[in-house]
Amino acid sequence: MTWSNWRRLGPAEGGTTVLAVDFGPGRATAGFGELAPRLTGDWTLWEPRTFTTGSAGDGDPQELVREWASYAAAQGTGVAAVIGYCSGSALACALADALQERGMPRPLLVMFDPDAADAGLIHDYYTTALRSFEGFLPDAELERARDLGDHTLSAAAGAGPDGLTALARVLGAEYERVAAAACLAAGMKPEYGRQLSERLDTFLGYLATTGRVEDSVPARAAARGPVEVIVSRQQTVPARFGAATRAFDVTRAALLDDQAVADTVTALLEREAVR
């Protein structure tokens, strides 16, 4: 079986399919790439490559998960579980629904530290990324970029789902301009600035996509089948995702790289296999 546009994370090769929804590698916190090898049993985690390059915020998230579900159904192997991390949990909920709507057995849905992506979160990541240029550019230049971010955030308020896409696009473009200026000032190759800006643009687009999932989707998903919500230390679960079912005394950054968490996931998958 070949899953084009999907990344195989393991632990088994050709095992029972588990679909994992997250931004992917390149982030400081542990991801499903760290969780997969800690699992035991005949499970194969697949993670979409959708968000590896280019802007991801322009499409309809429902169309995206329908495409994923169509491809998964075509493999003919079934899907035991759909797992999502942080804001990817919203897409995981929608994907579980889409698989069932294609006539497949309802998969187990597991969310890890689910969070809702909104305009404020997109803006926060943008302003945090700007700090990496402090010392390379005049304060006035960075202040201009922050002011533009604040203004764009205010304009996005109340604009609905499409406002997230517009916000991500504007902030991504401004960051690209600032990154190019910083590289020029520091005597670095322009390619480095392009890599930085592409990465942030893609991530902001990813957040915009997950944020456009309707608020009602997680509750509907929870009503349709088995759901587990696993949280790290002091993590608050937004109301739209329901209440935590299991909590672990680990940091958010280490949640998916913790053996006790992995053992719990293995047990949940094994339980699902005999349901």
What this model shows, in words?
By secondary structure, the chain is α/β, with parallel strands linked by helices. It has helices at 32-35, 61-75, 88-101, 119-130, 139-156, 161-186, 190-211, 216-224, 259-273, and strands at residues 6-11, 16-21, 43-48, 81-85, 108-112, 227-231, 246-247. α2 (61-75) crosses α3, α4 (119-130) packs antiparallel against α5 and α4 runs antiparallel to α7. The two termini are 25 Å apart.
Features:
275 residues, alpha/beta, 7-stranded mixed β-sheet, 9 helices, 49% helix, 13% strand, globular
List the helices and strands and how they pair.
Layout: E1 6-11, E2 16-21, H1 32-35, E3 43-48, H2 61-75, E4 81-85, H3 88-101, E5 108-112, H4 119-130, H5 139-156, H6 161-186, H7 190-211, H8 216-224, E6 227-231, E7 246-247, H9 259-273
Parallel strand pairs: 2-3, 2-4, 4-5, 5-6, 6-7
Antiparallel strand pairs: 1-3
Number of strands: 7
Low-confidence stretches: none
For the biggest sheet, the summary is:
7 strands, mixed
Gap from first CA to last CA: 25 Å
Q: Within the largest sheet, what's the order of strands? A: 1-3-2-4-5-6-7
Describe the structure concisely.
Helix content is 49%, strand content 13%. By secondary structure, it is an alpha/beta fold.
